[in-house]
Amino acid sequence: MAYNRTEAVDMRRPQGSAAPARRNIPNTRARMAPKPHVVTKTKKQLRAEEFRSTKKATKALVICSIFFLLIGFQIYNQVQVDELDRQLDSINQQIEVVDSENTRLNMELDSIISLDKVDDYAQNVLGMVKVENYQVSYIDLSGGDAITKSGGKIQRSLWETIKMVF
Amino acid sequence: MSKQQRNKLRNRAIIALIIICFLGFGAGAYGLVNVGIIKGEKYKSKASKQQLSDTTVSALRGTIYDANMNVIAQSADAWKIWVDPSKMKDDETRQDVATELSAVLDLEYDTVLEKCSREDYAYVLIKSQVEYEDKEAIIKFRSEHKGYNQIIGTEDDVKRYYPFGSFASSVLGFTGSGDAGLSGLEYYYNDTLTGTAGRIVTAKNAKQFKMSSEYSAFYAAETGLNLQLTINQVIQYYLDTALQTAVEENDATYGYGIVMDVETGAVLAMSTKPDFDCNEPYTVNDIALAAIDEKYTDEEGNVTDEEAKSKAIGDARSAQWRNRTICDSYEPGSVYKCVTAAAGLEEGVVTADEMFNCTGSYEVADRTYHCSHRAGHGVEDFTTSMMNSCNPIFIEVAQRLGKETFYKYFEAFGFAESTGIDLPAESTPVANVTYHTLDKLTSVAMASESFGQTFQASPIQIVTAINAIANGGKLMQPYIVGSMLDSEGNKVFETKPTAKRQVISEGTADILKTMMEKVVSGGTAKNAYVPGYRVAGKTGTSQKLTIAENIYVASFCGFAPADDPKISVLIAIDEPKAGSFTGGSVAGPVAAEVIENCMKYMNVEPQYTNDELARLDQNVDKVVGSTVTAARKKLESKGFTVKVIGDGSEVVKQYPNSGRTLPKNGVVVLYTEKRDPITVTVPDLTGLSVADANSVAIENGLNIRRVGYTSGNNVVSYRQSLEANKDVEMGTVVTVYFRTEIKEED
Questions:
Q1: Engineering a disulfide at B80: which of B155, B227, B234, B533 sits with its beta carbon 3.0 to 4.6 angstroms away?
Q2: Ranges of each domain in chain A
């Protein structure tokens, strides 16, 4: 079969041994068709060409793989970012809810320890009484802070005076 | 084909090409113009809707703090619950939904069922301001039933919390839908408290999910400013408590009160009773509701007139929201004598010790004015005439001043203008309606005005005027918001105290302070006396002649301490119906209670006279562990009465315990064996003199703590801390409140 042969065929030139299908072409047309140009290559050349084409194909494959990998990575990243965004939204909403709950509970706590309730509990449950004025001592701080040295002249013994000198 | 035919064919081809181009490009151009310009906005909006997610970030309303930064109003997120009745297919669904919603949201089942039955509606609000737990319960219920996601919905909402309920409610007001202020400070400062809503605009992907933050724009919401009030939570509590008790005891229609900082004009407390709970402003208070029920219910318990009752409830609701300390006005009565005296002293037409003779009446033109003491007070000096609240003397002073000068002081003290306090709906004086202008001020009208009649003033006007006497003559502009803070707590605005004008000299103010102090120590305002503190003030009793002759407003306005005033106080009890109606009897004790508490709270040191020191209560010493003889000796040396229970020789328990205080000759119970305490029944200690109350208490094994004016004649007890017939431990201290009966209009 022609594709098992090792001769290369130059399609730019008409050839005497045309393909079998061409045999059915009317003579007039056959006469007009150019003869194929056949180039003969060595096995070494063919192997080199095969190596080159394999190399090209590998290169293309690697480039494509990298390309698809990058795209895949990008998509993966996007998915991750979307997922994190969703989580962030959800956490923000939870924070808002917790903040609101915090406010509500604080308000509830404040209402429980309002002055009237504390007053009522202190007097009627604990039996406490309000402080009387005379039980309070007032300290006058209008004069500001002052340091008062206590004692007068220090009396030292003779031995202490000698020690002070040295 | 000839050349001519070829040209013709070529021309046709060119024309056809032009037509094709024109039609083709024209359609394209039209499409562009149509999409880009004619329907540009519509497509832009559609594209935005499809590609962008636009979320509004609501701004939280600012918080309101008291003067000590205690939160008194704060907002938090909440939810609205709504239903879509058009999607409820059968009665069973409606009943199921109504049962659950009414149970969780604490609503009437029939009301919810009625809402669920409005089949023509796709949105019916069931309840707003629902809290998190209830919302979650409803969401859980919704998720457990197939198809209910389309029927029950939730929406974001905001709820305003007022932790102390009715605390200063007439001042704070309340908010409505969308957290908008509807009354009081919430209304007046609505723009300040309301922040600016923010937005988050985010690109959406094909699946309508929001894209990452790099595709979003965030416009932050600006939280509203926080308000720090001048209202002090503790002083407000004292005022609220005292007024509430006074309204109940005197069977009064209303009670108003204001406590003001003398130097700045800052309002420390402002109260109107009865009031409402800011968390439930539409619920009518119990007193008003009971009155309405009584009026519109027959003996069998049926409502006599449903429509009239409904209208009455609506009116009561509006009435309870009213801040009567600034919105209402009344004839100030004798309190205004302070202004007449100030004008007289400042102008030099009278001196504090000038002698007058009160004959019981005074004639002006064709009118005869009577003194409240018909027989007349006789010869008295000007200070004593003020202590006696003697009308003829003040008419005389006004006549000496003349109309122009009298009116000048009327205006100067702020009675012809509103005070300008930062609260809504302050009443504005109306010329020749609520007061007489100079050209319409006749001698007769001036005579009436000299003792506070024939013109009206609001409580805030009156306390501002008296405050001017207390601070040495400066008429201050009252205010209630001390500062505004941003969300970080930084002060962005601070109110500076404003002195409107100097109305009298400091010297005149000092003379008046002394005169007003004497009114409290020995005049008609004796019930405002507080042991240890020098209180100055003036009482007023004004008839509400437009309603009936025997309807009064009893008031007291004063300040303390008289020698170095810190606070000005106004107390007015509107329409007291329980017997006493004079300012001295009704408003004086309330003022004393408020002033005493405020002075203690403000750490103003009391200065007792020798008499006061002699009457002070004493500490009970510890005698547990001592022998009965030693304990008795120790306690009796302090003037206490000792009762020994048991036959033992050593005291194992004492009551009251050591450290408690008792009046001299109080009862101390000593137990010499371990046993249950002996109980006694509290007797009725009201309507008694100090001595009688004390002896009745001791007879029953109880002690009394005396509060109020106790040193003069006609002193009777009018209240006790423990109700009569209650069983208590022997030796318990019962607080008994005393006052002197002031029967003449003061």
A1: B155
A2: 8-40
